[in-house]
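Ticket reopened. Same input as before:
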Amino acid sequence: MVESALHLTIATELRGRIRAGELPVGGPMPSESELCREFSASRGPVRQALAALRAEGLIGGGQGRRAVVLDTVAAQPFATLLSFSRWAEMIGRTPGQVTQEIGVGRPGPAVAAALNLDAGDDVVALVRLRLLDGEPAMVERTSFVTSVGRALLDVDLDTVSIYAHLAEAGADLHTARHTLDAVAADPRDAALLGVAEGSPLLRERRLAMTSTGEPLEWSDDRYRPDVASVTITNTRSAHAAMVRHLDD
Amino acid sequence: MVESALHLTIATELRGRIRAGELPVGGPMPSESELCREFSASRGPVRQALAALRAEGLIGGGQGRRAVVLDTVAAQPFATLLSFSRWAEMIGRTPGQVTQEIGVGRPGPAVAAALNLDAGDDVVALVRLRLLDGEPAMVERTSFVTSVGRALLDVDLDTVSIYAHLAEAGADLHTARHTLDAVAADPRDAALLGVAEGSPLLRERRLAMTSTGEPLEWSDDRYRPDVASVTITNTRSAHAAMVRHLDD
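Engineering reply: fixed in the latest deploy. New output:
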């Protein structure tokens, strides 16, 4: 195995042990020496793997001490919140999606209001189940204004990146306003995500706009909290650099 | 009534009607003329009030059309996430808090790990119920390293701003890492917040550090989702300016 892939293998294995509780929260991580022996690796890849887990909030400590387990869920950096696929790959898991429905129709009053539509306007609406390693992770309910969304009607949404496809089709997806809250799983969420009805889900609602402020997309994404959280770091009285890419 | 206060009165009244469902989501707002008549106001304060509601995500539309109701919950801008009191005042509601307990003791393994403590180290731990207009809104569970937290043992936490007090005492609260997810209300959350056990809460976990990265505080804040959400706006491939103040 080449060295460049070894740190990914080590990180994936350690994430799996943390998720499974084999390395419990509050407990110590194996030492660097132990990890070097176990994975027949030099310090370099072991340290790279530990740095990745640290960036995801899974482990902490260090500074001369042994690292400790902080969390079982790899947090999604705010900078990647729009890119489910990229985030999945970053934490060593395989993204997937199963489109439940797509069609053109009249939106409900809340979606029509968010998209600033006229009374008779349709939207292109779609529902997708997003997967991590084949397991249900998130339910995505998205509505696009038809001028943008019709570009999605003739593609296979189980394989195509929606934002990449829309950008190629010339859509000016520029600014997004995200609202994070908690909701109880409704019957459809529960069935798709494999959780009990009423159990807590992390919801991200997103209004995507053009550079002139015209609404293009309204999305309601609901995450199983045992697979996803969102993290943001900032500094007192300082402007934190923050980049998020509108691709998926 | 002086004009400078009138827009606040109008905004507070309109927020109340939206929260109560008298102005339902997806429905139109009263026109500017109607609001001017009702509140015996000129255009200025009416437009200021509508602008405030727009900034909070409660209404949208406009651009030559009548504004529409988008949401019943005023979103908390990310920039104020650390300042419950300031956020409450911004949305025209009165903040409050009731300290449930404060004391010095041994932390659990997860908190000890997050704060990078030695085996025998204590923390100053406190639990507060935060209120909006006297109604339960959030449960705050905070643990400070003792060198910082002992400054809190001799003050009335129902009236004092913790961060302001710690800053005065010389604490170097510089950087914070926030993780947002959804959790089910445990029995204590349920009792304090007046919700059913197991119902969804928006959780913000926060690790506050010094300018050199030394952990000072670990907090677990749980919001009733019908009173609070968190919102962030960003722009494609641009660095969004983001400021959050560490005061409360």
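Helices of chain B lie at 3-19, 32-38, 43-55, 84-90, 109-114, 146-149, 162-168, 187-193. Residues 3-69 of chain B form a domain with the Arc Repressor Mutant, subunit A fold (CATH 1.10.10.10). Please confirm and we'll close it.
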